[in-house]
Design brief:
heterotrimer; A alpha/beta; B mainly alpha; C mainly alpha; A: alpha/beta; Rossmann fold; 3 domains; six-stranded mixed sheet; globular; B: mainly alpha; 2 domains; two-stranded antiparallel sheet; 14 helices; 3% strand
Chain lengths: 522, 397, 328
Amino acid sequence: MENKRTPVIQLKGITKRFGTKVLANDNITMDILDGEVLALLGENGSGKTTLLNMLSGIYYPDSGEIYVKGRRVSIKSPHDAFLLGIGMIHQHFKLVNVFTATENIVLGLKEKGGLDLKAAANRIREICDEYGFDVNPNQKVYDMTVSQKQTLEIVKALYRGADILILDEPTAVLTPQETEKLFSVIRNMQAAGKTIIIITHKLQEVLAISDRVAILRKGEYIATVKTSEATVSSLTEMMVGKSVGLNIERPEVKERSLRLKVSGLSCRNADNIEVLKDVSFEAYSGEILGVAGISGCGQKEMLEAIAGLQKLEPGAEITYTHPSGETETLIGKSPKQIRKMGVSLSFVPEDRLGMGLVGGMGMVDNMLLKDYNRGPSPLTDKKPSKELAERIHDELGVVTPSLSTPVRMLSGGNVQKVLVGRELASAPTVLMTAYAVRGLDINTSYVIYDLLNEQKQKGVAVIFVGEELDVLLALSDRILVLCGGRISGILDARTATKEQVGYLMTNIPEAEEGGNADDSQK
Amino acid sequence: MTVRNNGRDPFVHLTKRAPVSALAGLLIRAGAFVFAVLLCAIVVWIMIGVDPITFLKTMFTGSFGIQKLENAKNFTSFWRIFTSSYFWTTFKTGCKLLLLAVALAPAFKMKFWNIGAEGQFLAGAISATYIMFNYPGLNPVVLLILMLTVSLIAGAIWGIVPALFKAKWGTNETLFTLMMNYIAIKIVDFFFNKWRGTKSALGIINIDSEAGWLRSLWKGSESAWFRNEDLIFMVTVLIIAVLMYYYLRLTKHGYEIAVVGDSQNTARYAGISVRKVIIRTMALSGALCGLCGFLCVSSQGHTVNSNLAGGYGFTAIIVAWLSRFNTFTMVGVSLLIVALENGSALMSNTYSDLGFSVAFGKIIVGVMLLFVIGCEFFINYKVVFRARKTQKEAVEA
Amino acid sequence: MILYWIQKAIAFAAFIALAAMGELLTEKSGGLNLGTPGTMCVGAAAGFIAAFRYCSAVAEPSVIMVLLVTLLAAFAASALMGLIYSFFTVTMRVNQNVVGLVLTIFGCGLAEFLSIFFIKSETGNVRCDFANTVFTARIPFLSEKLGVVSDLLFSYGFMLYFTIALAIVLTVVFNKTRVGLNLRAVGESPSTADAAGINVTLYKYVAACVGSGITGLAGVYCVMEFKSGAWATADLVTIQAFGWLSVALVIFSFWKPLNLLWGSLIFGIFYWAYLYLPQLLNVKLSTDLTQMLPYIITIVVLIIVSFRKKKENLGPASLGVTYFREER
């Protein structure tokens, strides 16, 4: 049957540059077949999203030709893409927050007659019934969960009669259960004759859902293979170009001592919703404490609370134990005060440019961020930061035109190297990282893992918030699982299974309702 | 579905370009300026009938000419002629604009839209005048120090009030500072009307005693060149401009301002108290505007009215923005704007019978600014036109 | 006397509300136009010059023509200001605040220059009485026979009723039509609107031009009725201040056209407080200090608005942000 399929989209020699240096897509020629599920696989920065953005009219190719259903087309805007039946679900949802689901769906449509939201809502219900979606037409987008927003995006594309759907990393923000639901919807849509393209870098998902896999590497098209003939290692090899050991080291550290004791941590967000409920745990020197959980389950708040950036509900305790044995409480202290107490706490936040670094400044000035205030002089002392910047640049291989180039202009991996490099340079006793490898290619990820292990061996208490369970299980000593702002379990990573962690991410065991689960350590 | 898509590239599309060199940037901006002036020259030629050469000559004389002003006929020494020339006036007024722009620089670098320079200026001016009007008998030095202090405080208060609310509740600072302008105007009006009594205007204050005038510091050496108040004013402003340059670039405060301006989250992460920085920076910004008010009262007109800032509080915002917070660039931009205004003033003196008015100065400044800010576009983006030959043999449906 | 106060307040409120409605329309598309004061001045000057020139050129000016000429000139001239604004902010992607402030400087200069050039009277103070009578003409029956109701509700020129009608029309357009939905989407999230196939650039241009045009109408309305058809270049400073007030009023209204009506009425009452409050309370108040009231009230409202954090009341999410599709 697959042989009978005809190409619905043909790309010929597509090239796209950003500025003069970045070549995002280099002369890409490939076909997408009618009615297939095609996975577009590649590392971060390999040009997957850029390529498909040219199909959806966000970017315009510098050169090359696009054929849709056999006709040469020029897709100048999302509207052109829509006329060609191409609908793209972006990673950042294109939804208006203050609008209802229905308003978002009919937005921009040029239907005849006046605006009839009721009729539109009825049609939305029909589509939902047909494919098994769950959308409330009158719900406002700002009240929706991530998964609901994604569903709404897909319904929107279908409502507009799209028969080619492009999904940009759809599972990045979903729970395993939600992912499963999404896959079943994709199968329904395929059965209804739609063509679906999924951008992803998760190999398991590629194997689970796609018919064929197209691989990009550093902006170049490598090959398209049938999924049935592919394996994890064959795909990895094509994706990264050389085989990398999939094993992450877990060195043993003999000496462990209590460094951080957290108990009864609760806090509310700006909308007064409790995002962290009675969280208690301990972190030890010489170990990596992995933190698992669906994104937005309180990881961010937990780390920020320890770093002195969160307002907490009364009753919380955060006690830091100096290597010398003295203890100090960190509650109610600002980052500056914590530093003054001699507590060397390093924090690599999730939002690198919005929190960890100053996007408009170069590497040198960014090195200054945490200790610009050093010394009594009213002037800043840039000499040490210049040396540090040079060291990080050389040791971690940061690619930048110059040390004064605003870090905003660097690629994601290099930004992360700058940030991690700075945080490690301050010789921390506690190191917290949030999604340290998000958006990084495999090589850079391994560099980060090695750095973390190195710190662990030096006797640092490392708290590693991650999203890939495989990585968490391989790297951590213990895994703390958060679910809806509570701790649903703390497991020994050496014995825990993926299923166990996955279960705890979505369920809180009855007996451990209080969140005080620390059985694995005892 | 019917698809009408001819497969041709769009006629024009934009891409971000790599940063151009400093020289190229300067040349593009200079080109835009020249173009704007020429455009105005042509418009004047068509509407009023003054040919472009005369226009440009008059504009130049009115802005940078060393010729004597009307009321300077009696002066003989070169210094006297020089200090009453158009050139001198342009520099003097340019420095007023410059000081306001320099005052705004830290606030704008912090991304705090302080459009209340006008009000902060007036707050400084009126409080200085209040002291000068009510305590003329004080020792000149004490009086001036007192005036300076109150004007700094008043300007700072005008800056701090919106900053407090911005820092605590995120109150929109653009409109807050704007409204603060009008409150200052009304306060000035109040004292102006109270002090003038039944006279039509307030007139020069302490004209006989020169109390509260900057030159009263040098009583006795009447004709000495350094007794020139304009000179003191200009030198003060230039010193502040240089200090501000280094304040923003080298000090810890300057660093904090830059971090807060880029991302408040990062600032918090780094342990910077965002509130403190916002309030402190606005206090500085307001105080410097107040200082400008003090200097204008004590060294220039020796009087006050609600139009004393003359809209420069607003123009200074554009100067600060165009200069990208670089106070050295501000010197040039301020001079240029004032030059255009003064040139137009001479034009309107000479050709008022043809319908030329001072207001043309605002127009030409507006056109010039639009061209210069418009050319930023060509510095930041590359316009790609469709290649001439498009493939006509696009596959037919 | 309270009646007179309210009457005057309504007369004042009407053109402030109209100017604010123009600004609101622009803001709905995501454009914060600080050029409103300049635009109002240009509209006032263009409208007055047109009326003045027409009335001096024609022996017996007709009502229809004078209306047509005045309103068209005011609308066209200020829509042109809107065009410049959108060209620079949308096409050239310059910071909106900066372009707005430049346009205010430019517009005030242009208005002054044009009026002097075309009316050729340096001192200003020229009148166009015929246009004034047209603009202040009352509705026959309703404005006379209903006693207090007539005085309170029908003692104004037609522009007041136009303003009210426009507020209703805009409300319907924003909430009940496709165009309104699209426009709001452009202001909330241009990238979403773009992805939905809405021509973001077109919407932003049209909103800014029509919005500026409406603001310009408010300018000429102010001259013809509030200033009794008299033109003085010195008045441009007052009009400029009104322009800033109307920008503030938009926030006051939570971006809803109907709220502009009562919001501006409150402004009007405080604006005239210096005239009536001292008499009413039988105290002596400084005129200058009482005139501060509307500005203080605006500040108070700004502060109150910043306390409330309801999403719908915060105004278009992309307000003041320049949109570039290929931004990464």
